[in-house]
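ARCHIVE CARD
Drawer: 12
Card no.: 0347
Subject: one protein chain, sequence and derived structure
Cross-reference: see card 0346
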Amino acid sequence: MIFPDEYKYVGHSRELSDGEDRRIYFLTKYLIVEHCNSDKDYSLYEVEHQGNDLLRDVADMKLLASGEEIVHYERELNIKDRALLIETASEMCKGDINTVIFTGIDKHLTFVHKPDTSEIYDIEIVDIVPPEPSWLASVVRRLEKSGIFGDLTIKFSENLTDLREYQGENTIFPCSSSGLQGKCLDCDIIDEDGALLVGCEISKDLFESRFPGIEYSFVNICPFRSDIFKPSKPFITRCCRSEKSGIVTINGIRGAVVHWGASEFDVARAIWDLVADTKGNKEESS
């Protein structure tokens, strides 16, 4: 796949000089030539140049695609959203088509040549419901829509545990603000054996401190020791212990952990840190 890191590396011309004076802007690595004598006909070149001026002599031009191999996507997109462009190009590259040209909302051009969706980094959002939508998923999706992750070439999937499946008269949840049906550690008294506590290590410690001697069963939902979650891909999740925030390894998988009270900025920074950590590990192993 060829997808320029920045659209400033992509030049656009409506003609290609046949003479000796072939000069090109010093940042240009690729050139899109729009042929005016035909309907929506393009050629794409990889360009090498020489010299030290703003306009430099073309040393070599390698044709990457032309004619029926290229289509121009009709709608303007956020061309800084790399995952969106790769997925869109992949859907359009059928038959002879191997290149899609995109126009940004600022009218600049870029392209994806021979798109490869395997280069999109998939991050799993691990959280609980209710509330619904999940707090963490809601934050990530709002940030994603803002375009803050566009340069990272990432997409998100969701792995949400619905705690309503544990609702019942003998079930104890950590907090009454969840709205779950059952009892809660912050407002109810437990005086009989046989309860089911659904929570984390902190919940367990609180239960045993408040109700010593009461026999109970326990479902651990802490991402570090969960009975119901085992990561299979890079992830972002929440923990009530702020000292556990950061980049961690669970089940051999790298992920990001934010505190339950994290801000949108904290979540965005954690995702950027996770991608940087993963890229760094890949470079070290290659």
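Annotation on reverse: The longest strand covers residues 55-66. The helical segments are 82-92, 135-146, 201-210, 264-285.
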